[in-house]
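Lab meeting, item 3. Inverse folding demo.
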C-alpha cells in the first residue's frame, strides 16, 4: 500500500511518520519532493516508479505553496491530511524552529516572552488557508494534531488504513518537544 501523509508544518507529522518507520513492513520517505536535499527520491525518478523493499510505503510531505503534490496523490492508495487546530502554538513552534534551527529536539518556550515574528504570522495564515482550501475541504482523510495526540485519533488513522498487522501500540513514538517555562529576571 502507498500512503501519503500530507501535513502542515509543525503538526506532529515527523513523530507519526517515525512510528510507521519503526514498523518492519514500512519504508518511509521524508519530504522526497519538497526538501531540496532529497528532491525527487532516487535522483528525479517519477513517484510512480519509486521502488521499496517493504510491503508498504509512507511518503511524508510538508505542505507548502510552491510544490505540486498531485502526482503523489495520484499514486497513493490512501491520503492522510494532518493539520493543527491551535494556530498560535503552531506558529510559536515554527518561529522557534526557524530562529534556532532546532526542528526535532526539545525546546523551551517562555510563556511570558511570546513574541512571534510578523512574517511567521503572515506565512501561517496564507499557508493554512491554502491547505484548507486544497485539501481539508476535499474527500481526504483528515485529522488534527489535537485529535491525534490527545483524543486517541491514532486509532482512527489505523482504522482508515485498515492494515491488519498494525496495532495501536507505542504511539506517540517520541515525546513532546515543547517545554513551557517562565523567564525570570536575574538580580545581581
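The presenter then showed the designed sequence:
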Amino acid at each position: 500500500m502507498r500512503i501519503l501523509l500530507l501535513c502542515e508544518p509543525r503538526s506532529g507529522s515527523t513523530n507519526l511518520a517515525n512510528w510507521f518507520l519503526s514498523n518492519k513492513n514500512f519504508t518511509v520517505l521524508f519530504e522526497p519532493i519538497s526538501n531540496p536535499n532529497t528532491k525527487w527520491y532516487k535522483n528525479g525518478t517519477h513517484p510512480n516508479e519509486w521502488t521499496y523493499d517493504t510491503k508498504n510505503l509512507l511518503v511524508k510531505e510538508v505542505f507548502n505553496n510552491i510544490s505540486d503534490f498531485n502526482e503523489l496523490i495520484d499514486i497513493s492508495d490512501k491520503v492522510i491530511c494532518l493539520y493543527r487546530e491551535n494556530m498560535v502554538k503552531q506558529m510559536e513552534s515554527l518561529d522557534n524552529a526557524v530562529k534556532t534551527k532546532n526542528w526535532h529536539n526539545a525546546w523551551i518556550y517562555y510563556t511570558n516572552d511570546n513574541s512571534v515574528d510578523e512574517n511567521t504570522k503572515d506565512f501561517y495564515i496564507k499557508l493554512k488557508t491554502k491547505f484548507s482550501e486544497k485539501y481539508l475541504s476535499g474527500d481526504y482523510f483528515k485529522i488534527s494534531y489535537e485529535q491525534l495526540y490527545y483524543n486517541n485519533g491514532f486509532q482512527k488513522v489505523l482504522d482508515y488504513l485498515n492494515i491488519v498487522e498494525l496495532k495501536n501500540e507505542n504511539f506517540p513514538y517520541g515525546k513532546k518537544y515543547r517545554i513551557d517555562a517562565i523567564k525570570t529576571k536575574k538580580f545581581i
